Amino acid sequence: GQLDEADRPTAGAALTAVITAARAAGGIVGIHCCGAADWEWVVSLGWDVLSFDMAIGAPLGVLARHVQDGGGIVWGCLATDRDPDVVSAEQQLSLRWSAGALDPATWSKAAMVSPACGLGLLPLARAEKISHALAGMTADWRDGRRPWEPERR
To answer: Structure pTM?
Structure first.
């Protein structure tokens, strides 16, 4: 559910305390939002990494500012409610990264990718299939394939 406006100061203080303690222990702190979120407020808390399901989305302008401030983004791009479709996931990433908020190279340097929400609730065989598809996609990227660069598509 949504956080009531009146509860934000208390929630913000508690989350900030957790972020501070995790950083003091040498941690990198991140948050995953499975549903609609007030991303301006979420980012204002100072997370290192933001994670979300791309099908639900997050405002590119807010994400771009987070990246410009040195933050990372985990794009939950590989659907878990059907067979994995790497081509579709890459097309969706490319569309978002080409939307103008930042250049695709900047997005890609700050990016991590993951399955969309719900992987942990799936039968093992299906979760493995999605995980292997994601591993193959990222291995291709490490080998130099850049689907978000128009000249290489």
So the answer is: 0.88
